User: Which sequence fits this backbone?
């Protein structure tokens, strides 16, 4: 890469797509860990004022060792794109501390929106829980 050249991320750019949000879901507010905001745990003061352009939805199960790297790499890939984004990371009932780590990581990353489920519902249900909470115009899914 030459100095000053524009950086492109074709994978993310080609994956941007509109996904209709299904209004009904098999998950209810009671399925979330007690005390989490239905807007996925971020204090209103730290949320971006406008909805992001891109929502990245990643279901996770027992990924505590990989979370810092995953969060960092997603940030590093999206930052140069010039698009606002949110990362909705759904902890699907992990037993290794993944949910707690997501909440700690989100404390200083307003674009990280953790969702912690009380038990393991499976990948499809975890993805749907994330889709139900996207705010972006475009949705990208990754498999954590």
Assistant:
């Amino acid at each position: 890469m030459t100095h000053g050249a524009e950086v492109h991320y074709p994978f993310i750019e080609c994956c941007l797509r509109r996904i209709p949000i299904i209004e009904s879901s098999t998950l209810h507010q009671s399925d979330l860990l007690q005390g989490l905001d239905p807007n996925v745990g971020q204090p209103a003061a730290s949320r971006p004022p406008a909805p992001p352009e891109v929502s990245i939805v990643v279901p996770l199960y027992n990924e505590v060792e990989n979370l810092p790297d995953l969060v960092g790499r997603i940030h590093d890939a999206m930052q140069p794109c010039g698009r606002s984004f949110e990362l909705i990371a759904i902890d699907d009932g992990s037993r290794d501390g993944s949910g707690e780590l997501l909440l700690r990581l989100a404390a200083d990353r307003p674009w990280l929106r953790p969702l912690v489920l009380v038990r393991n519902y499976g990948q499809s249900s975890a993805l749907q829980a994330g889709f139900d909470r996207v705010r972006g115009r475009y949705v990208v899914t990754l498999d954590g």
User: Anything to note?
Assistant: The chain has four helices and four strands. The radius of gyration is 15 Å.
